[in-house]
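Morning!

This is the sequence you dropped in the shared folder:
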Amino acid sequence: MKMFFLRFWVMWRRFRRGTGHRHAHHLTYAPQAEALLKRANPFAPWDERANWMIDIAEWIRREPAVSLADEDTRRRARHQRMLFLLDWLDTNRDVRRVVQTALQKTLREAAGPELFSVTGLPREPAFFSELSARIFKAILPRPPARYDLSALFTTMFPDTADADWLLELDADTLQRLWKLCADDGIAHAYLQQVNEALIYLVTLIVSVGIGPEFRQRLEPRMPLQATPFMALRRELEKYLLTGTHDDAALRSVRMLIAVCQAQTDRIYAHLDEYGVSVGLVYSIERMRAQLSRMARLIDLHAVSSAAVQGSAQVQELLVDLISAHHQRSSVRGLVQRSFSLLARKMVERNADHGEQYIARDGGEYRSMLKAAYRGGVITAFTILGKLALSGAGLARFFEGAFASLNYATSFIAISAFGGVLATKQPAVTAPALAAKMGELDTVEGLRSLLQEIAFLMRSQAAAVFGNLIAVIPAMSIISLLAWWIFGAPLMHTDKAHASIASLSILGVTPLFAAFTGVLLWLASLVAGFADNWFALHRLRDALAQHRRMVHALGATRAERFAGWLEHHVAGVVGNVSLALFLGMTPVVSQFFGLPLDVRHVTLSTGTLTAATASLGWHVLLSAEFWLAAAGIMVIGMLNVGVAFACALALALRARDVPTRLRRLVFRAVLRRFSASPRSFLFPERQKTLATAQEPPLPPSPEPAAPTEPENQSGQAGNH
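The structure's back. Tokens below.
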């Protein structure tokens, strides 16, 4: 058994390292080069000649198993091996003729249009088909591709570092390589294949550019034949027919490529108005990559055939092919590029909704408290409905479904009455905070951001305080009324003790509270997605001009209803999704054998109040009650903290805020909180507090501005 595993390990290492291990036992360049180059055989089959070329490329970039050399040293070593091969061939003329014949025959037989038009570019027309193709390519072995120059090229250069040392080759080395591998006939054949690749690329660009998704976003609106994409195809065909010396046609093609790229930029700018979809972002990125490749090929085509032999355009094109191929092979890169813009637009929409939840002065703080009072009172009735459902003896699924309905009704009622539910705000206010992190160029910008953070945390504290202050007496009154009407407490003794024990800080309460914070953040994502989906499908215009709706409501009311729905769709969907998460997550997790549950600070406080009222107020003297009370505090902090952290992390990533700025803000917040923790919980008593009393800010590359009163910096943050 041991020998079997050893043999398997050796075979696996050979499979991972490829064929480079065959020459690992050579100690000098000369025997290695001689062993490689004497294997050249112009009369061998295509597969044998292709594998021989791959072996040469592996030998050039081969590295020892253990090496302390840096990347520059490794690139110089590859360059030295390349020069040694060329010098050795110049010395051994007989071997050079055989090698030259084998290389030129292989390149003459290979088909190149796919190398120029497909390599490194997205091939599939849609995002998910491209994603599945990349996954299958990463998992499944590739079939042998005979006479395919694209497959041979990507196999010879399987590492992204190959582009670096290839770019560093000097003109003399490139000229020697060209004379070894090609001649005028091969150059002419490949220029014709470049023409075919240009026609193929412009056809793909036109097919997407004249589609309805693109045309309705182009400004100004123009006829089909007048679009720059159609004009690009006409001018390109004219340029290819007239030849390479028509400078006017060349300038026209280059100008139209730039115009088409500018049109894609305009489409990006209109995504706020029309909404964002992953498929649309993928199509735009695919077109931009195709336009960039066309620009490369046009530059290569513009030089004469004689100049191609040593031109920098060939070198730049090969480097671009290597880099693009490795970027295209990355599944993670595709997902990041396709979802980054969608995430940013969703973050921006949440930021617009989150501004209303930030209290910046004492009046807004008191308004937030009053809204939280209303939310706490309504939440008390939500807990009453939850207790009624738990005692109805329903099946687990139906209990979760009716609990979700109960939560949804409560959350929508809170929004309808102008109330606020604690812990819902962090997920939508964190993007509003991230939107201001792009203004950290000066000390005043950092001071304004710190003030905004203080405003935001006060708002969260006001929401939590208001909910708890209202839900405790409201739930107590409901419990006393229920006892007076029905003659029995809301909870039986065993259930009341179990409810109090489930909130203990010594149990799994912190874990469930953090998990609930993640659910709160996910609900905000669903709300942003719904808002984006509403704009993407232009439902406001569709509803305002719907024939039956206009006939039933009238044009004015239909327009008003469409506007109201556009303004409130994110709130309604966010409330319903949060209700489903809170009600159905325990049911689904238990179905899969996961003992997960949710812990929301307001709901848990109401449950603790109901259990205490059912057992009698003497339970206030017990240890289990105070453990549960400590658990409530932890639930509140984790609900707010986790939801805020998840939303802020997504917002910072979507806005590409540098890591250095994130650390700077984090340190500044810690300093201010340690100096004045009260400012993060309650509004300032004196608005004329000077900034000289603030803790010192971290050093900035720019000189600090003159000291100003703190209320002026707060007002600057408001504007």
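Headline: The radius of gyration is 34 Å.

More detail when I'm at my desk.
O.
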